[in-house]
Amino acid sequence: ADNIGFLTNLVYSDDFTSVDCFNRWKHKNLVVNLTQHCVEKISQRCIESKTIVQKVVRLSMAEADTYMRRDPAVRVIHLVRDPRGILLSRMNFN
After folding, report:
1. Hey, where are the domains in the chain?
2. Which of 14, 44, 50, 69 has an alpha carbon within 20 to 30 A of 1's alpha carbon?
């Protein structure tokens, strides 16, 4: 019983009994391969760039301070949204 952990790693093969199933599988794998190619290209551009911009949601001021102390070249742009739209949306749904 201790040696059955591998069962959770089973991958079931796609059903290729119809051309439609095969075409969907082919398209899915093409998208995955193209996505991987794009990620590799973008990663290389980041490595070569002087400036890297990153959007981080819900970063505390303490965390931002930590990053800025670790690397003096780090810059933080703190954006605050106008809460009126969110408030109006919540009032309409409640």
Report:
1. 5-93
2. 14
What does the block give as tokens for 12?
């079931």
CA atoms of 33 and 52, how far apart (whole Å)? 25
Q: At 29, give phi and psi (nearest 5°).
A: -70, -30
CA distance 47 to 49: 6
Please tell me the distance from the alpha carbon of residue 94 to that of residue 85, in angstroms, as a whole number: 14
Residue 64 near residue 71 (C-beta atoms within 8 A): no
